[in-house]
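STRUCTURE:
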C-alpha cells in the first residue's frame, strides 16, 4: 500500500481493491468491502467506512484494533502522514502476530516458604529458596 500510495498516488478505493488482490480470507473481504464503501461515498471519511466494514465482518479484537488504526490513518492526513500511519499499522500487526505465536511464559511459581525454626521470641523463621 505504501508504494502504491507514494509512487502512483493511487486513489484510496483502488488502493484497497489492489490490496485485496494480495490477501485471502476475511481480510480480503474487509479490503473489498472497504473499496466499495469508499467508492459509494456513503460515509464521509475512511474512518467511518472502516467502522461500517468492521461491523459486517467478524474478526478477532487484535485484528480489529489494527484495522481501526489503519482506517484512522487513511485519508485523514497528508501523504507523509498516511505513509507513517501505514508503517505504524504494519509494526502493530507484526507485534500482535509475534505475541500470538509465542505468548509470554507463565510466571514461575516460587516454592512455598517453610518455617525453618523458631527464633528467640517463638515466631517461626521463613526461608525462600531460589532467591
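SEQUENCE:
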Amino acid at each position: 500500500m505504501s508504494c502504491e500510495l507514494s509512487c502512483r498516488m493511487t486513489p484510496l478505493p483502488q488502493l484497497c481493491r489492489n490490496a485485496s488482490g494480495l490477501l485471502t480470507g476475511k481480510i480480503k473481504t474487509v479490503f473489498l468491502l472497504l473499496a466499495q464503501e469508499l467508492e459509494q461515498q456513503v460515509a464521509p471519511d475512511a474512518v467511518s467506512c472502516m467502522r461500517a466494514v468492521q461491523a459486517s465482518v467478524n474478526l478477532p479484537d487484535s485484528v480489529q484494533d489494527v484495522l481501526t488504526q489503519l482506517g484512522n490513518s487513511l485519508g485523514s492526513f497528508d501523504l507523509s502522514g498516511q505513509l507513517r500511519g501505514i508503517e505504524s499499522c504494519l509494526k502493530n500487526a507484526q507485534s500482535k502476530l509475534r505475541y500470538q505465536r509465542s505468548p509470554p511464559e507463565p510466571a514461575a511459581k516460587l516454592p512455598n516458604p517453610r518455617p525453618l525454626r523458631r527464633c528467640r521470641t517463638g515466631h517461626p523463621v521463613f526461608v525462600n529458596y531460589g532467591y
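REMARK: The chain has one domain: 2-101.
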